[in-house]
Amino acid sequence: MPRRKGxxxxxxxxxxxxxxxxxxFFLVTTTIETDAGLDRMLPPIEPPDTDVVIKQxxxxxxxxxxxxxxxxxxxxxxxxxxxxxxxxxxDNGGDGSCDFCKxxxxxxSSDNPSKAIISLKNxxxxxxxxxxxVQNELVGAYxxxxxREAQRLYxxxxxxxxxxxxxxxxxxxxxxxxxxxxxxxxxxxxxKLSEAETSTSN
Length: 202
Hints:
5 helices; transmembrane helix; Biopolymer transporter ExbD
């Protein structure tokens, strides 16, 4: 009786190489999602030469409770009205030193855009979506005013100028030209948006 042959052996010597190549392929072609987060730059830690006294009228306080209700300058307000109210505060020019402000020049409101501060405080149980919406409205108030001045001075939108300036692919000659313009607009309406420590509702 003839002897039966066993099953042919599979040469597994190159399997490790194939697995290694597949691993490299997936590492190179896979994109990893990154969280954008909030664009905030903390000021440098420098002790002030003198004690800075901030007048209460130069602070626009915004409080969000755990139910998503908004209290702006001690008055209930809808989120859709927040941007307009913030712009009126920033653009007030109460002390008359701002020659580009178009506000009411109310003596009981902010003196000057350089002195105006927006203070945001939220409850620990505030919904994240509400918090982000309020943030967007407040930053939008600054951007709208900056856009207005950029149009007046350079016939361009500030947001577009800033994004072009911050884009690393923008030629250095163009970035150098935009640097002074962007800085000038930022100095007209400096973004002074502070966040107070969160509180817990009882």
